[in-house]
Amino acid sequence: MLPGKTCGEMRQWEKVCGRVKKRKECMTAPITLPPLDPATLGELRQRYEDTPNVESRTRYQMLLLAQQEYKVPQIAHMVLRSEDTVARVLNRFLAAGLDAVPRRSPPGRERRVTAARARRIAARH
Questions:
Q1: Is the pTM of the predicted complex or chain greater than 0.90?
Q2: Could you tell me which of 84, 89, 59 has the C-alpha nearest to residue 73?
Q3: HEC-encoded secondary structure of 41-108
Q4: CA–CA dist 116, 95 (Å, integer)
Q5: Which parts of the chain sit beneath pLDDT 70?
Q6: How far apart are CA 98 and CA 26, in angstroms?
Q7: pLDDT tens digit sequence for 60-73
Q8: Domains of the chain: which residue ranges?
Q9: How many Cβ atoms from other residues are within 10 Å of residue 61's Cβ?
Q10: φ, ψ at 67 (rounded to 5°)
């Protein structure tokens, strides 16, 4: 029980929290992917196997799980990401295909250390 709360106040708090959660669940429409043609599914599996980036691999895994008819909350639980992230990845795929799935670099200024300078620094150590 929360400090300073009576049983009645605690029950009221739980009711409010329950309503908010149910309302949020009702507001999010389920995202279902149409069945992929064999070529696209093959490309998806190939990218999943070949990508060296762990985050991109996880995102491809989200699509593979969605193809197996798992829902967004189930996928989020399996891949240890938020439901928002899973929904964002699925929506990107629906809008722009496989090329939109990998994680993009964050916006901002370019690196000050060039690749050549980074190699020189690494060679010194």
A1: no
A2: 84
A3: HHHHHHHHHHCCCHHHHHHHHHHHHHHCCCCHHHHHHHHCCCHHHHHHHHHHHHHHCHHHCCCCCCCC
A4: 37
A5: 1-28
A6: 29
A7: 999 999 999 999 99
A8: 1-30, 32-100
A9: 17
A10: -65, -25
Cα–Cα distances in Å, from 105 out to 31, 63, 108? Answer: 25, 20, 9
Q: What are the CA-CA distances from residue 33 to residues 2, 64, 72 (Å)?
A: 42, 10, 11
**Residue 77 neighbours by CB distance under 10 Å:** 13
Q: In residues, how long is the chain? A: 125
Contact indicator for 85, 73 with CB cutoff of 8 Å: no
**Cβ-based neighbours of 72, under 8 Å, separated by 6 or more:** 28, 30, 31, 83, 86, 87, 90
Q: Which helix (H) or strand (E) holds 39?
A: helix 38-50
Q: Provide the terminal-to-terminal Cα distance of the chain, rounded to the nearest Å.
A: 55
The answer to whether 87 and 70 have CB atoms below 8 angstroms apart is no
